[in-house]
Amino acid sequence: MKTNTTTKKWTVENKYILITGATSGIGLAAAKEMALQGAQLGLIVRNEKKAQAVVDEIKQLTNGKRIPQIFVGDMSSQLSIQQVANKILDTCPKIDILIHNAGAMFVTQQITEDGIEKTWAVNHLAPFLLTELLLDRLKESEHARIITTASHGHKMAKKGMDLDDVRADKLYKGWNSLLGGANLRYGQSKLANILFTSQLAKIVADTNIHTYCYDPGLVATNFNQENGALARATMAVMKLFSRTPEKGAETMVWLADSDEVSDQSGLYYLDKKAIEPALIGQDQNLAQRLWETSEKQIRIT
Ligand SMILES: NC(=O)c1ccc[n+]([C@@H]2O[C@H](COP(=O)([O-])OP(=O)(O)OC[C@H]3O[C@@H](n4cnc5c(N)ncnc54)[C@H](OP(=O)(O)O)[C@@H]3O)[C@@H](O)[C@H]2O)c1
Questions:
Q1: Is 70 helix (H, G, I), strand (E, B) or coil?
Q2: In a domain, 6, yes or no
Q3: How confident is the model at residue 299 (pLDDT cuts 50, 70, 90)?
């Protein structure tokens, strides 16, 4: 009798996956799951001690079969990103999947050593720069994927963004600071994740690289814990309505592992389905302008 079995062509098993933000929350849950599925991981982290604990946990979970590599880099510093990328290029002969997941929100205006507002630097410019620096190595794989953790929060930025206001002075000063300017900045950075993904898909269309972004839903993590007592209290209430990190990580793991998306690129997903982002997230002129501005912003120093 004929059996109707389909063989999966692509899995994360034995793929080399680089991931940022895997010391906590969604990234940590995804890293553990992908290691269990047989992936070899490279963790890009700012805190080596926390990363070592993750390595120990994954080693134990996989009975010593998977021991992630640690690469130390601060995603708010362009110099640090360049240094970590150099180290990765020296160490990793192949990269199959690059996952941009590290993210944060800053309630008060913080300016990085590169003169850039920090939410924008960590959430958007770090993925942009890291991608540029690692792109040639990704091209050497037979099939490669770039995945970015975006958010439904991009909808807060429905009016777009002032691409010239790199310090976000207009959002963090005056009335705007009282009217949720920091939230708006976070929304803009997550809108940038979506526009970056669609523009990148066009740029790498003739290559082996496919790119995706997704909304993990509302997830109970350590997000927004460094912004004072009010933010922590708000997050504690929100946790009552939130998903577990494991649930939040499901779409990321699926995008890394699935055959179904092998022919797709540039799209935005929720719960393992491609969905349309807000109209502003479909604005291809804005995506092009964002790309050109980001190119200049990663060459400030
Ligand atoms: N939680 C939600 O409801 C939600 C919803 C939509 C989207 N997201 C997105 O999901 C992603 C993961 O967030 P999470 O909720 O899992 O929060 P989390 O628990 O706070 O994890 C954030 C991760 O990013 C890392 N990180 C932050 N700043 C960094 C920097 N400057 N350099 C290097 N690494 C840095 C953190 O490292 P440390 O461990 O050293 O702090 C941590 O590993 C973010 O992009 C966030 O925007 C979250």
A1: strand
A2: no
A3: confident
Q: How far apart are the CA of 242 and the centre of ligand 1, in A?
A: 15
Residue 79 sits in a domain whose CATH number is 3.40.50.720
Distance CA 172, CA 56 (A): 40
Q: Is 222 in the pocket of ligand 1 (CB under 6 A)?
A: yes
The reported pLDDT for the residue numbered 233 is 83
Is the shortest distance between the CB of 211 and ligand 1 below 6 Å?
A: no
Mean pLDDT of 15-44: 98
Q: What is the pTM of this model?
A: 0.96
To test ligand 1's pocket by mutation, which of 54, 101, 215, 269 has the most ligand atoms within 8 angstroms of CB? 101
Q: How many domains does the chain have?
A: 1
Q: Give residue 158's domain range.
A: 16-291
Tens of pLDDT, residue by residue over 238-261, are 888 899 999 999 999 999 999 999
The answer to whether residue 38 is domain-embedded is: yes
Would you say residue 55 has pLDDT above 90?
Answer: yes
- The catalytic site residues sit at 186
Is the shortest distance between the CB of 75 and ligand 1 below 6 Å? yes
Beta bridge partners of 213: 148, 268
299 domain residue, yes or no: no
Question: What does the buried/exposed string (b/e) look like for 14-39 if buried means 16 or more CB atoms within 10 Å of the residue's CB?
Answer: ebbbbbbbbbbbbbbbbbbbbbebeb
From the centroid of its chain, how far is CA 100?
3
- Does the pLDDT value for residue 202 go beyond 70? yes
Residue 99: strand pairing partners = 19, 147
Which band of pLDDT confidence, cut at 50, 70 and 90, is reported for residue 179? confident
Residue 11, domain member (yes or no): no
